[in-house]
Structure formats: C-alpha cells, structure tokens
Amino acid sequence: VQVVESGGGLVQSGGSLRLSCAASGFTVDHYRIGWFRQAPGKEREGVSCISNSDGSTYYADSVKARFTISRDNVKKTVYLQITDLKPEDTAVYFCAAALEWSPDEYSDYLIPGHYDYWGQGTQVTVSS
Questions:
Q1: C-alpha distance from residue 101 to each of 4, 31, 33, 44, 62 (Å)
Q2: DSSP character for 46?
Q3: Could you tell me if 119 and 93 are in contact, meaning their C-beta atoms sit under 8 angstroms apart?
Q4: CB–CB of 30/52 below 8 Å?
C-alpha cells in the first residue's frame, strides 16, 4: 500500500496550487483519503478527506472556503485544490489512507491516528 504526494512548491500569497495523492497497492474504492498538514513546530492537522466509495467529503472549518478535495478513481488519485493561499498555509502536506469506517463524529475523519498509510509529504511554501 502506497500513497505519494506531489504538486507542492513555492507560491506567492493569493496564488493557487493543486496537490495530488496517487495511490497504489490497494483497492481504493474501500478507502478514505485524507489530507493533513504540518507546519514547523506545530502538530499535524487534518484539513480534508474524501470517501472513495461514495465521494463524500469533509473539511476543517478553517479551510473549507479555500480548499477543494476531489478524486479520480480511475487514476487512483485524490486532489486538493487550494486557492487564495496565505503564508499560514505554509506546511508539509501529507495524504493518508484509511479503510473506510463510520466515525462517532464527523470530525474524527480528520484525526491522523485513524489513518494507516502515509506518504512522505510535499512542501508548500507561501511567500507574502
């Protein structure tokens, strides 16, 4: 099981990026893919996730206006479109996979501990 992130880079404030998470080695239809980020000195936080079985999505309140998650199950790839980038978005962005489950609360979908397979991350740096 492998997930690999790509698409990060250096962007000016107000710009956009599309991050990709390519999955291999498992039947993606049964999994939920989450995007997380970790800024220097801070804990890893969940920003969004998508169910590959029904396409349902969930976002952290702090990003839902600017982040859009989508999937292409044929390509086994999940995307995270980020618009109006801000310096505080600077972080390493990770994607992770978890066998689909029913959480006690929807916010559980963004808890890193629920995810089993992690990529190496892609750096996003936003200059002011």
A1: 22, 9, 12, 21, 24
A2: E
A3: no
A4: yes
Mean pLDDT, consecutive 10-residue segments, the chain of 128 residues?
A: 96 98 88 96 97 94 96 94 98 96 94 97 97
d(CA 88, CA 94): 16
Q: Please tell me what DSSP assigns to residue 36.
A: E
With contact defined as beta carbons under 8 Å apart, do 24 and 79 qualify?
no
* pLDDT at site 26: 81
Under DSSP, is residue 88 helix (H, G, I), strand (E, B) or coil? helix
Beta carbons of 57 and 48 less than 8 angstroms apart = yes
Place of tokens 């029904």: 54
What residue type is 67 in one-letter code? F
